[in-house]
Amino acid sequence: MKPKNRRIMGAGGPDDEDNRWPPWLKPLLRERFFVQCKLHADSHKSECNMYCMDCMNGALCSLCLAYHKDHRAIQIRRSSYHDVIRVSEIQKVLDISGVQTYVINSARVVFLNERPQPRPGKGVTNTCEVCERSLLDSFRFCSLGCKIVGTSKNFQKRKKQQVAMASDSEDSYSSSSSHARYMKKNNINNENKVQSFSPSTPPPTPASYRTAKRRKGIPHRAPMGGLIIEY
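Structure tokens predicted for PLATZ transcription factor family protein:
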């Protein structure tokens, strides 16, 4: 395979981030499709669902293709309001290994961009490495966009840092748990250790016990309360 074709297929060397993907791929993923063509708004075929990989000048309608003869054009389709492309078309110009494919309208397709999933379904054992969408076990990404992000150097570096931080956290938790088990095994109570530095309360004496138990007597009136003074 010639070097030029290797760049088109997205199989550039791992140290060449800029040439890893064909120049038309990222603009394609950012493009907005299925809008009305500004040049052919009066036509009933004015829906923009085509893209020219040579010109990279935005979404095109079928009538625009007359100005792109002998160019490589690719058709975008839609499934549940998400853009897809047929595997039979995209695999000719791009390496889509690791991206999960789906069968829609009897044709196998791949999604262009991620579709995050709030919660993976029960029993799910494999998810997209970028957006965590449920996948079959043999795939790593749910879309072409996720593959670009998930295979970039910055993403891999950040992923390794997260794994290292999780490992440090587990080690810290393990150390704390071991310390707690040691304290419990040797009947060591932290609260008792703290209290041992202060003097204990002295036991009550008989005198203090009688004083504490003594009840108040019946109150009496003042001596002058019933005295009548005559003038």
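Residues 156-185 form one domain.
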